[in-house]
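Hi R.,

Here's the chain you asked about this morning:
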Amino acid sequence: MSSVTSSELEPVRRAFRRFVRIDCQVVREHDFRLVGDLALDLSTKGMLVRARTRVLTGEELLVAFRPPRSNRWIDAQGTVARVVHGRRPGDTGLSFGIEFHGMEMEQEELIFDKLRGMLAPDAMRPPRPLVPRSLRAA
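And here is the predicted structure, written out as tokens:
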């Protein structure tokens, strides 16, 4: 049995996520219906959006938004990664998480730069345990 040092442990979270309240336009790709209009949190990999109508996990979306403290619009494609039904304590109502795909590195860098120094959103559940790198799924 091998022992694991603290330097071999790292948190499971993949993205740099921050609390925001920014206007956005999120439309379903197949019917161009507006499904969301306010980003609740944002990262370089996706965003949590207040829902105007119900969406399904896996639906393809088109997203337009300006990162905080920026005048530059970002257009992105994404997929509904999760739906928050607003039933748990701390939920902000019906919302959905979007996972971006095909975003250019320049856009990710702009988002990262504009989010730096902003507050992280409050945790909705207890933190996950640290996982040894050797045990993480690739």
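One quick note: Residues 4-13 have pLDDT under 50 and may be disordered.

Cheers,
M.
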